[in-house]
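Backbone-to-sequence.
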């Protein structure tokens, strides 16, 4: 992708600018919407939005990861559905995300694990770059 979407949030400091230290936690659930969060997190990492990290590891609360979160410029949570598992794990660790995107809120229906398209991934990635789900 040569033309990356630009920030539409006015310099909030929440990952919309390349070079920010944003940590991305994706729910990575087994449904298509969970799989999409993981794929979107990988693509966002490749595009320079931030760095994907393991939400299951976060649940264990290792000191190094919690320090990385504390030292970051913000946290992006990608949840597949309104169960908000990744968001709940983050909240349990006292983490307040600067952006929280829920895939089903983007109009993508929850289904079997392989029922998604590249367009679905792009829709999530674009939503993040456009600043949807900003909490600050």
């Amino acid at each position: 992708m040569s033309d990356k979407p630009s920030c539409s949030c006015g310099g909030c400091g929440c990952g919309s600018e390349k070079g920010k230290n944003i940590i991305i936690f994706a729910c990575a659930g087994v449904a298509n919407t969970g799989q999409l969060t993981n794929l979107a997190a990988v693509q966002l990492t490749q595009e320079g939005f931030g760095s994907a990290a393991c939400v299951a590891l976060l649940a264990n609360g290792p000191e190094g990861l919690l320090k990385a979160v504390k030292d970051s410029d913000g946290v992006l949570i990608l949840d597949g559905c309104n169960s908000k598992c990744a968001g709940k794990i983050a909240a349990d660790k006292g983490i307040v995300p600067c952006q929280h995107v829920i895939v089903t809120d983007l109009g993508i229906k929850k289904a079997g694990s392989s029922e998604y398209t590249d367009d679905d991934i792009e829709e999530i990635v674009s939503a993040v770059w456009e600043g949807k789900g900003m909490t600050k």
